[in-house]
Amino acid sequence: MSISVRDQFGKQLAKLAKADSRVLALDGDLGNSTRLDSIEKETADSFLQMGIAEQNMVGVAAGLASVGFQPWVCSFATFLTKRALDQIIVSVAQTNFDVKLVGSYSGLLTSNTGKTHHSLDDIAIMTTIPNMTVIAPGDARETVAAMKAMHRTVGPMYLRLTRDETIPSFLPDEDFEIGKGKSLAEGTDMLVVTTGSTTYRVAEAIKQMEDVSIAHQHFPTLKPFDKELLIEGARKVRQVVTVEEHYKRGGLGSIVSEILSESLPRKIYRIGVPDNFFGCGTDEELLEATGLSVEAIRKSLIDLSLCKKQF
Q1: What rounded mean pLDDT belongs to the chain?
Q2: Residue pLDDT, tens place only, 95-112
Q3: pLDDT digit string (tens) for 61-93?
């Protein structure tokens, strides 16, 4: 059964706020969409409505962190990471304040809102910022576990969340360790590397590929990255494929390419969003148009496996 990531995010943050008076939720007038309204309903004293003013919201969060609070700043990922980038760098990252930044509605699946709301470069932006930890959980259960780890870890962090409501809690039920990846399947022909909500679609595609031995690694932490696990997995195969709901440049594929080019050169193929803007559409239409539906991923992996002897 699918469990909404954003619903669980709101419920968990309300729990954290009830248990810890330092935790505050800062909303950019999107609480109904991001589910920050859960905090407003359950513990109103921990909820601050900042309006549609992302730059100011991040500045206020930095001020609150400077006097001992742990603010959780939430907006749509594209608004938070681009409109308030200067404030994130200068007021949060350079000061190394304990501010948690939450980018909801990441990627393409933004409820038919179109290219102004798509967030396809936030991994590239946030992973280049010193002091910033970047986390992209794969399902609702991992989101809750990641939030618990974020709460007990001091420092600036970015949490990348999906709006996709079709993902079940499919990942292993275990504690979340920041900076650690997970091996979901072993194989010898190909290593597929994923992060965030894409991990589920890839796992479903792999289930339908009986004639190919595919290893699958999920990296919910993009910075710091679990280099050891990646290298260990890549050492066993000749072919590495990354899949992500992000532009091909600057995201997971670029991270994997950089690591392996320095430590263990391998042929790497990147499956992700092409260098283009995309219009409005249903989730299914957008995933199909960008080659990120389960069937499109399966076909891409089959094509790559058929030509593996060339590598």
Answers
A1: 95
A2: 999 999 999 999 999 999
A3: 999 999 999 999 999 999 999 999 999 999 999
Question: Six-digit token pair at 287?
Answer: 């995933």
pLDDT band (50, 70, 90) for residue 308: low
Q: And the tokens for 161?
A: 């969340």
- CA 260 – CA 135 distance, rounded (Å): 21
Q: Provide the percentage of residues in the chain whose pLDDT is more than 90.
A: 90
What is the C-alpha to C-alpha distance for residues 197 and 191, in angstroms, rounded to an integer?
A: 18
Enzyme catalytic residues: 54
Q: CA quadruple 89, 93, 95, 98: dihedral positive or negative?
A: positive
32/222 Cα distance (integer angstroms): 28
